[in-house]
Amino acid sequence: MRLKGTKFQLKVWKYLKTIQKGKIKTYKQVAIGIKSPKSARAVANACAKNPYAPKIPCHRVIRSDGGLGGYSGIGGTKKKLKLLRSEKAPI
Hints:
Blueprint: H1 7-16, E1 25-26, H2 27-33, H3 40-48, E2 61-62, H4 76-86
Parallel strand pairs: 1-2
Helix pairs in contact: 2-3
């Protein structure tokens, strides 16, 4: 599948595919993972613009305070919570 997005979005989405099922990361951890440690807010925006959810698993990324954050896929945050619970993620 050929992804369409900005260079930054593609970098974030590529990283998201490395987060294993049942695991979660924060937007900050993803920012650090893509070697752009001050870009947590931009990472959240890239997740929000992810048209490939849940195939590209942005549902595995949460806020640093433990809040779910948003979810770009159909069903919004209720679906995000359902996906995380089905993967037995530590939420």
